[in-house]
Write the structure tokens for this entry.
Amino acid sequence: MSNQTIAILMPGDMGHGVGLVLREHGYETITSLTGRSERSRSLAEAGRVRDAGDLDTTISEADLILSILPPAAALSLAEDVAAAMSRTGKTPVYVDCNAISPATAADVGARITKAGATFIDAGIIGLAPNKSKETRFYVSGPDVRPMTALNGMGFEVLSLGDEIGRASAMKMVYAAATKGSWTLWTAVLLTAARNGLLDDLVGEFDHSQQALLKNMRGKISSLPADSERWVGEMEEIAKTFSEAGVTSGFHDGAAWIFQLLSETPYAAETRQNMDTTRTMETSVSAFADALAKRLQE
């Protein structure tokens, strides 16, 4: 299988890491950088993911496509790829690895299968595999063998059965707990700051909730760098909860928090250049300033 050509669409923080470990295990990895930013180009180079040119050329070369990009773009990419498949007559296996609801995964799959390609639903849990040995791909669909064949190639692949949507649902409920908790912490600290109680609350946490405070300090300041793309993920989680008959309110609120964080100066940072010395209190102060500005408009 190592002579397989795998297209990574697109080589962002996660995608370039996936591309790098696949390359290290002998796979040819390609992408289409047409119209992409300089940052995408730099990440593709760091991940040793070769630019194959336009989307048609990339699809023509690929045996397997991994769609890894912000969830809001998942459906439009599937439409573009399906159109490219129709133009080229090439139908590589398409794996949607994005943080989308089961219903959105079904919509993506319908477009891909209509073009004549095999579709696999997938959800990634963990850091990019070049940064962690714990990365897991959950997969589901009628034929997940093209993905289970990658098990051990820098990450673990686990099948959840033949139903499209199960892998996406796993990603949704997992991220609902992790990212949802981070936004709850942010909302708590922001409300304390708005009431002039941030230092007092932190002092109480230091007395009675030291483990929680440690986790807050380790996470809060890094959230703005990913906040814009996580808005869409929270919206997909809210959709997943609603479709299950559970309130979407928690993650509608999480989307609100990430949208607010995307309006702060720190949102211009990336994981590569963020200020890791900034304190949680400084970050929360900036969040409060962004909220005050929003309320004045």
Remarks:
- The domain at 170-296 is CATH 1.10.1040.10 (N-(1-d-carboxylethyl)-l-norvaline Dehydrogenase; domain 2).
